[in-house]
Design goal:
By secondary structure, the chain is mostly helical. It contains ten helices and two strands; from the N terminus they run ααααααββαααα. Strands 1-2 form a two-stranded antiparallel ribbon. A hairpin with a 4-residue loop joins strand 1 and strand 2. Helix 2 packs antiparallel against helix 3 and helix 3 packs parallel to helix 6.
């Protein structure tokens, strides 16, 4: 939904076809120059973007309903902390999807274009800040959830003493505060948000005129995001290994089985969140850092069109994260996992019985044939 493309918004008056997808019809050069001078773009109905935004809102609302019901059921158990984190993550995703999507669609429907994609204004400052804030918050929350589960799985007694609902709410407030402080750095002239190709979205200045403070800003943003993903990977790996070891011990206590089942469900969901975040956010983080480094060193001119396309791909994949995250809670629930396990077990048993039956028939045929030979 983000970075919806205009047919003629290449970020400069040039009409090089390398800056446009093959399925767009280009205007003639005089018309392009007139469009850029007037600061307007041809009107186009963003039906696909609106449909994508509607689906994202629907999926997030469904996930919130599921998590709210689960939270009411497990309010006084160890799972309540995880559910509070998860509900906050989905609510943040929903807010980011609606706010960023509405701003981009408004920009697109207005048909206005900046004289250069390297410019900025109040609208761009707000949109860029929202991009950074709603980008960091889910990654921070995913890392915090993984750390909380790792502590709960490996040190349950310490987890019971340290982790409470009040402290979880304080941690959430700190996460939002840190993300907000990072997003507001350009307000204090510590970095710059600029319009990005094709002029319908804003992000840190990484493609044109990148300065030292811009490079430091994008390194801070990418470093925090990648560190969160790496920390979540380590915590989820430790949790998974611990659960596998506990499973192999074959505990017979029913209470332990229930707790282990809850832990398994939560870790599976965390792995789903981590994989989704890595796939969706890594391209934008890596491409943005690469673009800023090359732009700052002055070696980007020959590959600027390529990096523009990479940045568009990255931001579109990042936008998909807010649509895919709810499916983790919708599909990876314990009831669904049990159903998948039973179906898999049934299929494995069926294949095993067919194999044993075939083997028995072959063995019987061999014995019968041998007896007949002996009689002869």
């Amino acid at each position: 939904m983000l970075a919806m493309q205009h047919p003629n918004s290449s970020g400069s008056p040039a009409t090089s076809t390398s800056s446009f997808p093959a399925n767009f019809t280009l205007l003639q050069k005089p018309e392009v120059e007139a469009v850029v001078r007037n600061g307007t773009l041809p009107q186009s109905s963003p039906v696909v973007a609106g449909f994508s935004m509607t689906l994202g809102i629907l999926f997030n609302v469904v996930a919130l309903i599921i998590l709210a019901k689960a939270y009411n059921r497990f309010r006084r158990r160890s799972k309540a902390t995880f559910l509070l984190f998860a509900s906050s993550l989905v609510a943040t995703d929903l807010a980011g999807h609606v706010i960023n999507g509405a701003l981009v669609m408004r920009r697109y429907s207005d048909g206005s274009a900046p004289d250069s994609t390297n410019e900025t204004d109040a609208f761009c400052l707000f949109l860029g800040g929202c991009m950074v804030f709603f980008g960091l918050c889910p990654l921070f929350m995913g890392c915090a959830m993984a750390a909380e589960r790792c502590l709960g799985v490996t040190k349950p007694l310490l987890h019971a003493q340290l982790v409470t609902t009040a402290r979880t709410k304080i941690a959430l407030a700190l996460i939002w505060l840190v993300a907000l402080c990072v997003a507001l750095l350009p307000v204090f002239n510590l970095g710059t948000y600029t319009y990005q190709y094709p002029g319908t979205w804003c992000f840190i200045r990484v493609l044109e005129g990148t300065e030292g403070k811009d490079l430091a800003f994008v390194m801070l943003f990418s470093g925090l995001a990648l560190s969160s993903l790496g920390s979540a990977f380590v915590c989820n790996t430790v949790s998974g290994i611990t659960l596998v070891r506990a499973r192999l011990k074959k505990t017979t206590c029913s209470k332990s089985r229930s707790t282990g089942s809850n832990d398994t469900e939560m870790v599976v969901q965390l792995v789903g969140i981590m994989v989704t975040s890595c796939i969706c956010w890594s391209p934008l983080l890596v491409f943005g850092l690469m673009s800023a480094l090359r732009s700052y060193s002055g070696s980007l001119d020959s590959d600027r069109a390529t990096y523009r396309r990479l940045m568009i791909t990255g931001v579109r994949m990042a936008a998909c994260n807010q649509i895919l995250d709810p499916w983790v809670y919708i599909l990876l629930r314990r009831a669904i996992l049990r159903r998948i396990y039973r179906i898999t077990k049934r299929q494995a048993s069926l294949k095993g019985s067919i194999f044993r039956s075939t083997r028995w028939e072959a063995s019987s045929f061999h014995i019968t044939e041998k007896n007949c030979s002996n009689k002869i």
